[in-house]
Amino acid sequence: MSTRGRPAALPGDDGHRRKLPLEPGDLLVWHVAEDGANKASYDFGQLAVGPRMQRELAEAFALQCGPTGTWKTLPSSREPWLILLYFSRFLAEQAHVPQSLGELTADIWAGWRLSRTPNSTGSRQVRKVARLLKQHPLVPEETRKLMSKRMPKEKAPKETAYSDAEFDRIKLLATQRFRPALHRIRANRQHLLDWRAGQFERGTDGWLVGEALDHLVRTGETPFFIRPDGRYRPDPRYTEALGGNRAEDTWMRLFMTTDEGCALMILIIAAYGWNATPVVEMKVPDASPDAGNEGQIIYRVELEKRRRRPADRYETRNLADWGATSPGRLITHAIESTAPAREMLKNVGAPTDRLIVWRLAQRRAAYGEGTAGLFDGHFHANVWRNWRQELGGEVSLNLRRLRKTVVIAHQRQPTQHSQDTHDGAYVLPDPRTHAAAQPVITDGIEEAIEAARSSFKAQISRADTNVDQDTPTTSCSDYTHSPFGEQGVPCRASFLLCTACPNAVITPRHLPRLAYLLHVLEELRAALSPEVWDQDWREPFARLRDLRKAPDFTDTEWNDALEKASAHERRVIDQLMMKGFDA
After folding, report:
1. Residue 363, Ramachandran bin (φ over 0: left; ψ between -120 and 50: alpha; else beta)
2. Within a 10 A sphere around the Cβ of 72, how many other Cβ atoms?
3. pTM, full prediction
4. Could you tell me how many helices (H) and strands (E) the chain has, helices first?
5. Which of 106, 244, 421, 491 could form a disulfide with 249, with the two C-beta atoms 3.0–4.6 Å apart?
6. Rounded to an integer, what distance in angstroms lies between the CA atom of residue 129 and that of residue 113?
7. Which of 9-23, 48-62, 123-137, 442-456 has the lowest mean pLDDT?
């Protein structure tokens, strides 16, 4: 049994002393988040082990929850707590149940490792228990060494950006969940303001609803009686006016549900591309009117990136709300839909400055037995189950993928990361980027091919030319006006440049020597280093390849041409190539 103290002595409650995470003789560990406003309790009396082991585990756990510990937020302690529940059940199933960490043998630890599912979840469970216990002085040295043995990590699949259709599907569903909540809370809050202004006649349904809403925002519940068995019973005087006793008729009038809180979080990520954790922990931003634009509000949003060094840990964004399509309009809606919850928490002595907060369908005992235990500001893994079912098998909801989609396809610039991270981790590896770049790459290749073809300037003709005008490869129409030399004097350019000269003329008669030259260059390419090839031979080879691909001569003509090359033509080409190679 737990010997926990009364919840009234929570850390920081009296403003003079702070209760330790774990009091002597107690088994209830309190964790106060770094912001001081959020706290949770973990009852180690629930663990399926003996009282001595319960106390030792509680001490190790409390050390991480304390001022010198590494757990600064409630999610950082919640997961190890859930894993310890599994671990204690495993210990309780052993033939010799250890009563102390000193009895935690290497064999038992090896069994715990083997009992975990061979995936990333199982590996994480083993690592977190090892990290919590391996420094405890009672743990045997042999067990400690085994705890220090690295667990193999499964390589997580790379998360790719959503397609436009998938992104729109997720955003549409989030909008369909959040918009009704916004309008519902807005309408009921206005009703409450009208009631407080005395606009309803006493005793009417409108007046009863207003009084019920006032009670709701002060206590977290609509008017009720407490039955002798301790259970709540709705006050029948208000039930009919409210329309019933369902959640939709009572607390949902002013507070969002878990699903609606999820929808708001999704919309914020989809709109701004921020990380999920800073969105969950985001405080209500400061608002100020824009001096230059009447009716415009500027929100100063503060974001915290916990993995960064302290100097760069906080960032701010200024978002202006001037109308329905402005970047700050979603922030206005977020504040409006969650304001009654913050007002209620302040009224019951548990104020919060979190932007996203909602009411739970059932009380969460770990957050305290009071009304504040009905309200949450953290997203657990199971709250997304309904979303996955709603989206169906076509789209799998993943907040990291959602953010990546915004960064890559919508903002196309860094958000909470550097330009190098933006390029290397987000843009370049993603298939969506590859697909979007494909037309650009194709256009570039086509332009390069076109540029290469433009360097081929020789004329092609089916009509025969004067044999006396032949060069080793082509016929020349103007031997004294070469673009590669002084005008009025005979051309002295390399025979390899004939295909790049507008004075050259190629007829079917020249194909054998050109086919043989292309053959020689292909053999030379295989023998030379890429650097030498690119410098001396790549351009004439490319021009001949372009000529080979051109439609002016058929494949049959080219295939026959190499066989028709005479011994004289081959010898001339070989001699000229040798001179060029020696040069």
Report:
1. beta
2. 15
3. 0.56
4. 20, 12
5. 244
6. 10
7. 9-23
